[in-house]
Amino acid sequence: MTHDAYPDSQIREILKSVKRIALVGASASEARPSWIVTKYLIDRGYDVVPVNPGLAGQTLLGKAVYASLKDVPGVIDMVEIFRNSEAAGPITDEALTLDPLPKVIWMQLSVRNDEAAARAEAKGVTVIMNRCPKIEYGRLSGEIGWQGINSRLLSSKKPVLAGKGFQKLTIHRPGT
Fold this sequence. Notes:
Oligomer: single chain
Shape: globular
Largest sheet: 5 strands, parallel
Number of strands: 7
Structural class: alpha/beta
Distance between the termini: 24 Å
Order of helices and strands: HEHEEEEHEHEH
Strand content: 5-15%
Strand order of the largest sheet: 2-1-5-6-7
């Protein structure tokens, strides 16, 4: 598969189908993008499991932090890699030892490892590279437009609010 572009339908289906995300490279610093993405995904209803050996045994945003993917109890639907492209190879390999395998390996913005992607895809795992699930969720839900950013989506459908409290939109709309 070419990883230069992904159809919106594929990204939407991934974000709608995964429930439990292991975020490798989670940070305890509120100024770090990994912390911001962790909080955003938790606020959108995902069960995010932070993975960082330096923070193992602590809690981050109310979630237990684990040292490695193999230490995370239960099924992981998606492994999100918040590390550099070189580190993505060994992390992908560790993810491929999990039983059951994750459905998706997602590499953050600027993270791309084609060899690791090929190994994962050979085992039937979907791979997304050089994308941010927070940005993609915001773009597909329409939230990103609140900041004046062009989502590249036009629709006459009324956006669906994602519950009570702080205003946020959802990708879980009828017909999508």
